UniProtKB/TrEMBL annotation:
ATP binds at G186, E187, S188, G189, A190, G191, K192, T193. GO terms for molecular function: actin filament binding; ATP binding; calmodulin binding; cytoskeletal motor activity. Residues 93-289 form the Myosin motor domain. This is Myosin, heavy chain 9a, non-muscle. GO terms for cellular component: cytoplasm; myosin complex. Belongs to the TRAFAC class myosin-kinesin ATPase superfamily. Myosin family. Pfam families: Myosin_head (PF00063), Myosin_N (PF02736). Keywords: Actin-binding, ATP-binding, Calmodulin-binding, Coiled coil, Motor protein, Myosin, Nucleotide-binding. It comes from Oryzias latipes (Japanese rice fish). Residues 39-89 form the Myosin N-terminal SH3-like domain. Signal peptide: none annotated.
Length: 289
């Protein structure tokens, strides 16, 4: 992690490849010129059919309408007050937790996620939630070294990551002696399966109970099935078993789908994976859904 006393240019030179996809460049955050420009021009977000929203400078208010000068084109347009959304000060650019935004609106959320994504930062917190945007490429932020970086750390001490969410849930399970759940949800192709794998990877490493094996999943299955996993721990925090349940996502006629080759001809499967725990049958267990 880069020292706070360093300038961005100095710290960037010492960054590893992984650091660039975790910390990013927030050099404009404390730029006084950017802050002054934002305040002087009264920058706001206005709707745009192609872009969703674009930056405008508020020039005049006329009853229920406002005159706004579009920053990119210089064109002046009249827009209903209700369609204008406030813009956050530059110090909130690429903020790690969107709950910190002064102006929490649709345009600001989309802008922050887009800016972070284009900077290689795919994880962003939104309060208790972690928003993930699929990069559709491999990133060097899932190594054993990165796992150890997040191990035992509080969420605010590290950049947003699925490992931070997983570690927080694991520590809560151990401290409070209560079951914990992590829900990965999103549209098809959003990266639910991959992030679920990262959760299991982290838990397997932290618990040091067994070595994980790579799963081979047929490409068509993501349209049909969702894998739900329940991992069981003993009271010392070691993994002693797991349940894997495969369910149909949408009620539909199997004839609507192409056959899945290389697998059993079934539409619903349920399996249990048990790893030797070395304990008695009545040993107390905690679960991680």
């Amino acid at each position: 992690m880069c020292a706070s006393s360093q300038t961005w240019a100095e710290s960037a030179a010492t960054m590893t490849d992984a650091d660039k996809f975790l910390y990013g460049d927030r050099g404009a955050v404390n730029n006084p010129l950017a802050q002054a420009d934002w305040a002087t021009k009264k920058l706001v977000w206005v709707p745009n059919e192609k872009l969703g929203f674009e930056v405008g400078s508020l020039k005049e208010e006329q009853g229920d309408e406002c005159v706004v000068e579009l920053v990119d084109s210089g064109k002046k347009v009249k827009i209903n007050k209700d369609d204008i959304q406030k813009m956050n000060p530059p110090k909130f650019n690429k903020v790690e937790d969107m709950a910190e935004l002064t102006c929490l609106n649709e345009a600001s959320v989309l802008h922050n996620l887009k800016d972070r994504y284009y900077s290689g930062l795919i994880y962003t917190y939104s309060g208790l939630f972690c928003v993930v945007i699929n990069p559709y490429k491999h990133l060097p932020i899932y190594s054993e070294e990165i796992v150890n970086m997040y191990k035992g750390k509080k969420r605010h001490e590290m950049p947003p990551h699925i490992y931070a969410i997983t570690d927080s849930a694991y520590r809560s399970m151990m401290q409070d002696r209560e079951d914990q759940s992590i829900l990965c949800t999103g549209e098809s192709g959003a990266g639910k399966t991959e992030n679920t794998k990262k959760v299991i990877q982290y838990l397997a490493h932290v618990a040091s109970s067994f070595k994980s094996k790579k799963d081979q999943v047929h490409g068509q299955e993501r349209q049909l099935l969702q894998i739900c996993e329940k991992i069981n721990f003993d009271v010392t925090g070691y993994i002693v078993g797991a349940n894997i349940e495969t369910c149909i996502l949408f009620p539909a006629n199997p004839d609507q789908f192409e056959p899945i080759t290389g697998t059993d001809d079934v539409w619903f499967q349920h399996g249990d994976l048990l790893i030797g725990g070395g304990g008695e049958g009545g040993e107390q267990l905690m679960s991680f859904n």
